[in-house]
Each structure stands twice: as C-alpha cells, then as structure tokens.
From TrEMBL:
Pfam family, one: CbiJ
Domain of life: Bacteria
Keywords carried by this UniProt record: Cobalamin biosynthesis, Oxidoreductase
Entry protein name: Precorrin-6A reductase
Annotated GO biological process: cobalamin biosynthetic process
Keyword presence, Signal: no
UniProt organism field: Alkalibacter rhizosphaerae
Documented EC number(s): 1.3.1.54
Gene this protein is translated from: cobK
Pathway in which this enzyme or protein is active: Cofactor biosynthesis; adenosylcobalamin biosynthesis
Coiled coil: none
MF terms (GO), sorted A to Z: precorrin-6A reductase activity
C-alpha cells in the first residue's frame, strides 16, 4: 500500500492509473470537496483534512505505507516540506512529482514575474484599471489591501468556505467569480472583456491549471499579465 498526497486533477489521474494497475492506495487531500472528486473504489481510501508535521507523522504511522508519493500543488511548498520531513523521520521512501511549468521561454513586454506578494501589490498600487486575481483563495488575504480591493475581481473555487473568506476580506459579492477551472481560452476572453480587465494576476500552475489558456489571450488583448512565480522548494 502507498500513501499519496494528491488533491489536483493530475494527481487524481495518476492515482486512478495506479489503481488500474492493482495498487492499493490511501490518498490524503486538504478538503472534503477534494475528497469528493475521487470515485469509490475497492482499493482506494481517501482522507480529507489539512495536517501539520505531527499530524502527518501520526497519519503515516497509522497506515504504514511502503512509500509516499507527493503530488501536491507546485505552490504548496510548506505542505511538501512537512511530508518530506515526516517521511525522513519515519524512514519511509518519499517521492515528489513535479508539475511542469508552462511559462519557460515565454517572454512578452506586458508580462512580469514577482516572487513575493508585497512587490506585486506595490506595483499595482501605482496603476489604474480593473484587476483579475486568479491565484486561488490562499493568498488573497495578502493582496486584498485597501488601495486595490475596489478595483479587484477574484476568480475562486465556489465552495462556501472560500466564498465566506472572500466576503470576510471585504470583497463585494459582485467582485467574486465563483467558478471551477481549468477554463478555456474563450471563457477567459469573455471574462476579460466583460469585466474590463486591464491586469491579470496568475500563478504558473502548469498545463493542468490552464496557465497558457489564461496568459496568451490576456496578452492578445493587451492586458498586463503579472505572474506570481513558483517558490523555490
């Protein structure tokens, strides 16, 4: 039996492929919604809930896997560090599967990369025009500052927890786009046009995250693309 930390679509696809090969798998995901996306199968157990280091160690001890596979999101660096450390302390073989970037070699005068939220928000404070944030909900508390919130639209997963967080940050419901991606180029174009977007902020989430489908049409429309770059693991 193996333990897999995988809440993303590519992680789920990998798990289902392994199940087809006869592997017995316990999957750990952060949320109940993430767990609901897995089908019920005889050799699959799905456990939801965020875990700190000690909780991960208890979880792994309870299941005693022959190895652990880390299929977490490329921006979930702290989670990956805790998984790796727990495996090292418990002497369990650990493997990290990295999602390929979509933006290597793509250069454009209207595309800038930032590796911290503070310089990104400082840059935006000097601009005018509507901003679309497509970075997920986890970083919104760092960017929804007074100077930007009245110009911002956020595209987030439409769960009650996420929507409540957005409203708690002071976002008007009309500025919360509750949608599940990834999104087609055509839908992105429609959103950019209908909401008069001049700045689009994204992470480099790779092909499964629809990064190019967001970035390329934005650049075609003359929208400035601000990339929150991947953290160093």
């Amino acid at each position: 039996m193996i333990v897999v930390f995988a809440g993303t679509k590519d992680g789920r696809d990998w798990v289902l492929d392994r199940l087809d090969q006869g592997e017995e798998i316990v999957v750990s995901v952060a949320t109940a919604y993430g767990a609901s996306l897995y089908p019920e199968q005889e050799k699959l157990q799905v456990v939801s809930g965020r875990k700190n280091l000690e909780e991960m160690k208890k979880f792994l001890l309870a299941h005693d896997p022959k190895r652990v596979v880390d299929w977490t999101h490329p921006y979930a660096v702290e989670v990956s560090r805790n998984i790796k450390k727990a495996c090292e302390e418990l002497v369990i073989p650990y493997g990290r599967i990295h999602r390929e970037t979509s933006l290597v070699g793509l250069e454009h005068p209207k595309m800038y990369t930032f590796h911290r939220y503070e310089p990104l928000t400082e840059y935006l404070k000097k601009t005018k025009g509507n901003i679309l944030w497509t970075i997920g909900s986890n970083g919104l508390d760092q960017v929804m500052i007074k100077d930007l919130i009245h110009r911002s639209y956020v595209r987030v997963l439409p769960t009650s927890q996420v929507l409540m967080k957005c409203e708690g940050l002071g976002l008007d419901p009309s500025r919360i786009l509750g949608l599940q991606g990834p999104f087609s180029k055509e839908l992105n174009l429609a959103i950019y046009r209908d909401y008069d977007i001049e700045y689009m902020v994204t992470k480099d989430s790779g092909k499964p995250g629809g990064t190019l489908e967001k970035v390329l049409p934005a650049l075609e429309m003359g929208i400035q693309v601000l990339v929150y770059g991947r953290p160093v693991e």
